Structures are given as C-alpha cells and as structure tokens.
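JOB MANIFEST
job_type = single_chain_structure
chain_count = 1
residues = 239
[input]
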Amino acid sequence: MYKEKKYRRWTGSDDLVSFEVIEKQTDLFILAEKNLRNKVRAAILTYRGYIENYIKKDRRFFYSLEPIKVDRSVPEIIKRMADASKKAGVGPMASVAGAIAEFVGRDLSSLSGEIIIENGGDIFLRSSKIRTLGIFAGDDSPFTGKLNLEVPVSKKGLGICTSSGTVSHSLSFGKADAVIIMSEDTILADAVATAAGNIVKEPRDIEKAIKFARAIHGVKGVLILAEDKIGSWGDVKLV
C-alpha cells in the first residue's frame, strides 16, 4: 500500500526537475537536470532483478539480520550490499534502499551532471554546488522543520542515509528519531545508519552510537536525534 512521504512536500530546487518512479516496493524521488523517468524505471528493474534473483538462490540474503558470505562472482550490487553489512554488522537487506539509490544514480551520470535520488530517506547525491537537505525526525520531534543539513560539493557522489526507530516502517531495534550517516559509499551509509540506530534505545545512547559509527572506515559524518537530544560528528554542518 502506498504511504505518502510528507517530507517530500518540502523538497525542491529551482535548477532541477523533480519526478517520482515507483516499482513494487521501490519508491524513488529524483531531482535531475531533466526528466529521466524511463531510464530510472529501467535501472530499477535491472537492479531489483539482480536482488530478487539472488534471494531465490539464497533466502538468507533476505531474512538474515547478520552478515552472510556471498560468492564473489555475484552481481556487483549483491557484493556491495554483503560487504557493507559485514562492516556494519547487520543483515545485507539493511542496505537495499541505499544500494538502489546509488546504482540508479550512477547509471544516470552520463545523462545528468546534477542528480539527487531519495529512496525512503536514503539519498544518493552528486552535485557541483552546495545543497541543503531538510531533516525529518517525525511530526513530534522538536527538530523537524527547524534543522537543515548543508551538503558540500560532491562530484563523485555522496550518500546521506537515515534510519529511524520511531518514524520509518523499516526494521529498527532502537528508538532514535533519526540517525543520519554520510559516506561516499551510499550502501555503507545505509547499513551503518541501521546499525547505529539499533544502539539508541534512549537519548543517553547517542554518544555510544556515534562512537560505533565513526570507527567504521568510510563514514564521513554522523547526526543523531533522539527526543530533545542531538549529537553529531564529522562532516556535519547544520543550518
């Protein structure tokens, strides 16, 4: 069943065209230099196909809440998800939204120099200018609508992924309103956001979760919101 993502109402950019593409459980919101809906749909089907076909061969890839080994001859998206889950200590499907966002985004690199792809709160962004992203931590959070994240120029691509134990429908064992991880590897950012989110059972766990996330090679920034408390580390600039 489709559920409106209210935070998308806030999203827009004068220099980019926005559009949505939905295929099964994949629901992408895209900002690009032109409407690339058909290209995006084809890319989604390709990468979903890789994941769905692999799950048919190994159901553990779908159900496991811990890292699993995969053969090195598997499609690149499967390999990257398995590698990210190993680093973060979570199951491979914890990174599926970030994986789809990044792989689709990189497929569009020759068609749009500026690209922002949001997939359920997980973002792949490539831009030659500074961008500002709004932070949604639930309707009851004192930070929703009050804080924005300034994202630096990233011509190679940057992942900004969010996990929530109070807002998202995705599985989380924590109670954080928002755990945001920044990394040049969007798949890693997604996996680490889930893992760090699992740590935050109450606001006093923010420091522990930041310590965990910052120790993972490739993580560039951490921002955690829980009730009325906030913590950050690394390349995080709030405006």
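[summary]
The CA atoms of residues 221 and 235 lie 5 Å apart.
The radius of gyration is 17 Å.
exit_status = 0
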